[in-house]
Amino acid sequence: KPLWFMLAIMQLGLLLSMWIGNHTAPILLVSLLVPIIHDFDSSSRYVKALLLGLAFSCNLGGMVTPISSLQNILCVANLEKNGYTITFGQWMGLALPLCFSSTVVCWGFLILVLKPTDVRAIPVIPYDKRPFSVQHSFVLLSSFCTVLLWATLSLTQGVLGDESVIALVFIVLMFGTGTLTTLDFNSFSWNLLVLIGGGNVLGLAVSSSSLLTSIVDALLPIIAGGTPFLVVAKVLCGVLLLTTFVSHTVSAIVMMPIVCTLGAKLGMPVLVPVSSALTISAAMALPFSSFPNVNSLLVEDDKGEPYLKTKDFLLTGVPFSVTMTL
């Protein structure tokens, strides 16, 4: 049943993006889908819906944990600099129900708008089934323990210290036992790590030079005034508009130090930064708004024709982005 297959792919995109990031997950899933969708023409409504669903679900997956996207990482880091802590479990408890239900809503919305009923069956792709080995069990157990320690860090912080210590232990286990190799190490997204480090440096430079204070003081008269709901709505509308045109990564680096300071001055030091981080992930109206969108846009058929065009993102991405922000 093609429509149920589409929902399964979207939920898989959501779950993978939670743990391995919404840059890696869409690449893995597109490689899974390419042998299937190559049997269909570039004008297929079903393929359009499938690729859009994958992109949107991976964007939603970028909201779920503090490590699933750059904006979440920077949000938690800036909150800690301001003396506020939000744990792994608290973030997940807030975002997971929202994102899981939103993925189902997105699936229904794509079916309603695109009417992807031109495919009656999914082609069967043969593959070699490999036995479940001891190494597989070790990786699963180590991953489960790492996530469990992150989620319960508030109980063990006096012993373990920080989330980065837990992550370092996991890395040592993977490379020390030979599960991961030098090739794996060299294939890491070092550009993303540099962006994260650069974002921290940029935030520190803006803060120490008093530029951050000047920007916030200039924005306060525009944003302040009205009910708390209206104030937050003004901030989130600005974040959504900016992110739509400059991408999640750039927006996160530029905006997170500003919204964290702005939230503190508005008397909402946690609500404004966290909701802004989630809004950055919700911006998906244009092909270049996020990496998952770009990844889906670049998928082509055997003739080199792309399955998706900008109008496909605008048709579905604009209303869904606004709905998610609300």
Give structural notes:
The two termini are about 30 Å apart. α1 packs antiparallel against α5 (about 90-115) and α5 packs across α16 (about 310-325). The protein has about 325 residues and is an all-alpha fold. It has 16 helices and no strands.
The major beta sheet can be summarized as:
none
What's the helical proportion of residues?
Answer: over 70%
Q: Outline, from the CA principal axes?
A: globular
Q: Distance between the terminal alpha carbons, to the nearest Å?
A: 32 Å
Class inferred from helices and paired strands: mainly alpha
**Measured on Cα atoms, how large is the radius of gyration?**
21 Å
- Listing every helix as H and every strand as E from the N terminus to the C terminus, the arrangement reads HHHHHHHHHHHHHHHH
List the uncertain runs. none
Percentage of residues in DSSP E strands = under 5%
Q: How many β-strand stretches?
A: 0
How many H/I helical runs? 16
Q: Mind sketching the topology for me?
A:
Elements: H1 2-20, H2 24-37, H3 45-61, H4 70-81, H5 88-114, H6 134-151, H7 153-160, H8 163-176, H9 182-186, H10 190-208, H11 211-223, H12 228-246, H13 248-265, H14 271-282, H15 291-297, H16 310-325
Helix pairs in contact: 1-2, 1-3, 1-5, 2-3, 3-5, 3-15, 4-10, 4-13, 4-14, 5-16, 6-8, 10-13, 11-13, 12-13, 12-14, 13-14
Provide a concise account of the structure shown.
With 326 residues, this protein is mainly alpha-helical. The chain contains 16 helices and no strands. α10 runs parallel beside α13.
Which key terms come to mind for this protein?
16 helices, mainly alpha, 326 residues, single chain
